[in-house]
Amino acid sequence: MRRIQPTTAFVMAALVAVPLSAASDAWARSSSASKEIRAIDTDNDGTIDLKEAQAAGEATFDKLEKDKDSSLTAKELQGRVSKKDLRTADGDHDGTMDKKEYDALVEQRFKAADTDGDGTLDAKELKKPAGRSLLQLLK
After folding, report:
1. DSSP letter string over 32-100?
2. Distance from the Cα of residue 43 to its chain's centroid
3. In angstroms, rounded to a whole number, what is the distance separating the alpha carbons of residues 70 and 89?
4. Which of 40, 69, 75, 104 is the most exposed place for a label (fewest CB within 10 A)?
5. Structural domains of the chain, count
6. What pLDDT is recorded for position 7?
7. Average pLDDT over residues 131-137
8. pTM
9. How far is residue 112's CA from residue 42's CA, in Å, rounded to a whole number?
10. Is residue 1 a part of any domain in this protein?
């Protein structure tokens, strides 16, 4: 019977563990995207359409807008939008984002995330940077 050296056993274990770890990370990301879809997908078709994204965005806006002045400051946005993106989305240049401006940003990010142009976002699209950027506005 041949004895396996400790270093050989370690290398073999590492070769098995690395792919399993990568698969586990991919599954966690997929599971996370699926969970986020389920939270927003009101028609239960497994995707998010613009109407669903806008409804989720409006709910998030209302949740963040604590002082009831009908706008969100950078502080109220809690890092969901960079200062640069806030300046760009702030159509009236008052340093805040009202619900109409927030909704327009949700729509802009939705369209950027919809890489196949089918009008819906699936888990694969939500895992990409544009999809993750949209999700920041929806939760």
Report:
1. HHHHHHHHH-TT-SSSEEHHHHHHHHHHHHHHH-TT-SSEE-HHHHTTSS-HHHHHHH-TT-SSSEEHH
2. 19
3. 15
4. 75
5. 1
6. 56
7. 96
8. 0.77
9. 21
10. no
